[in-house]
Design a protein that fits this description.
- This protein is 57% helix and 11% strand.
- By secondary structure, the protein is an alpha/beta fold.
- The chain folds into three domains: 132 residues, Nucleotidyltransferase, domain 5 (2-Layer Sandwich); 136 residues, Helix Hairpins; 137 residues, no CATH class.
- Helix 15 crosses helix 16.
- The termini are far apart.
- The N terminus is likely disordered.
Length: 426
């Protein structure tokens, strides 16, 4: 690298001021190792004991030392406390290094697998100093996107935890009270929770008068006379799976604990839904994603976060398709060519595009045509949905880049003009 160069070009052809220094930072649990090198001079090695005060003290020293000029830092992380701290300093250019990249780079020169903190920091320094033009720097998003992104990811984790509780609850009921799975309806509903709290086993339920059960359903918005009649008939004919008090009493205690957890999770999922709605409405790009076919309030917010507001982060559709792990990888060796799944992509981001693409089959004409066309060619559902996500990213990228909401009618007109088979109705 020419140390006298006044500007460098990153992998998106954006001019950047030449760095005052490069740093490789190996982030540990109790202590962090770093290696710093200026354009002239030998590498400087150091360690930072873990604490917020020590980290920010070190960063303020660097800011004073280099007068706020840019410093390029490489670290094996793309999120978390250290990234949040580094983002507070605008002069810091952060290069998150994929662990797979650092492992392969290390083993290229140390096949033995030898590893410790300072050599790792040296390796990170070498990566950012010698290969920054090939690395993807972290593009900080605006506050609205950061908040909305945090909300949708936190909600997804809550929903996953709720799903785990529901699976436990289903398994428990099958073991001693299987009739409840039909009588209580959806287990994550207020009706189901109230039903199971009132009648935690079949004996208690059969002891209740039919009029009492009927009134319970009515008060919980089950107004179908046919459905209530079928459930009352099921209760009358139901046979207890087991009468062993030792088993049933324990199961009832487990049931109470699971219902407690489920109610708490339900409460907080609802709370997150409300906050996501407010944060999404306040986002500057909300109009671009609010009315997308099949998106709904949750997926629309997640798609908004996926793109963000920083246009240089994705200068073309391919950059986002690759980063999200939607674009497949092609490998060629000799006369062989094969395609495989892109590894180590952000899981939640990839899920966002794939889940939404699946929904568009029901709500978008051309997506439905494409899906059925691929089915007729013998393609599997998962492959079709990933391919559909690939197409949707290209379309949405254009809308996002030009700040124009997606218009299904206009897009169908364009397909018809190009005589695409996807413009026809299935």
């Amino acid at each position: 690298m020419n140390q006298k160069t006044k500007t460098i070009i990153n992998n998106r052809s954006t001019p950047l001021e030449a760095p005052a220094a490069w740093i490789g930072l190996d982030w540990g649990d109790k202590e962090h190792a770093f290696v710093l090198q200026e354009p002239t001079g030998a590498p400087e090695h150091g360690r930072i004991e873990h604490s917020a005060e020590n980290l920010h003290g070190w960063l303020r020293e660097l800011e004073a030392r280099f007068g706020g000029r840019p410093v390029f830092i490489a670290i094996e992380a793309s999120r978390g406390a250290v990234i949040h701290a580094l983002l507070r300093y605008a002069w810091m250019r952060i290069y998150p290094i994929n662990p797979a990249t650092s492992v392969r780079y290390r083993t290229a020169f140390k096949p033995s697998g030898a590893k410790d903190d300072l050599p790792d920091a040296e390796m990170l320094l070498e990566l950012v100093r010698m290969h920054s033009e090939k690395l993807r720097p972290l593009e900080p998003q605006d506050e609205c996107t950061v908040k909305l992104g945090g909300l949708v990811e936190a909600r997804r984790k809550l929903v996953d935890r709720r799903t785990a509780v529901l699976n436990e609850l289903t398994s428990l009921l099958k073991s001693y009270y299987p009739q409840a799975l039909q009588l209580a309806g959806k287990l994550n509903s207020d009706l189901a929770i109230a039903f199971l709290r009132r009648w935690p086993d079949l004996i208690a339920l059969k002891a209740a008068r039919p009029a009492t059960v009927k009134r319970f359903y009515y008060l919980h918005q089950v107004r179908s006379a046919k459905l209530v009649s079928e459930r009352l008939e099921l209760i009358a004919k139901a046979v207890v799976l087991t009468t062993e008090e030792a088993r049933v009493s324990v199961a009832q205690m487990q049931l109470e604990e699971l219902l407690d957890r489920l109610e708490v999770l339900q409460k907080h999922v609802h709370r997150f839904d409300q906050e996501i709605s407010r944060a999404f409405a306040a986002h500057p790009n909300a109009e671009l994603f609010r009315d997308l076919p099949g998106a709904g309030p949750q997926l629309a917010a997640r798609l908004c976060v996926a793109f963000g507001t920083v246009r240089p982060a994705y200068p073309d559709p391919g950059s986002l398709q690759k980063y999200a792990g939607i674009a497949p990888v092609r490998e060629k060796s000799g006369g062989q060519l094969w395609t495989h799944w892109r590894w180590r992509a952000p899981t939640f981001l990839r899920q966002t595009f794939v889940e939404w693409a699946g929904q568009t089959v029901r709500y978008s004409v051309w997506a439905r045509v494409y899906y059925h066309h691929m089915l007729q060619r013998g393609k599997k559902h998962a492959m079709i949905v990933r391919a559909l996500a690939f197409k949707w990213i290209r379309i949405l990228w254009r809308c996002w880049y030009e700040n124009v909401p997606y218009n299904e009618t206009f897009y169908l007109h364009q397909l018809a003009r190009r005589k695409s088979i996807h413009a026809a109705t299935p």
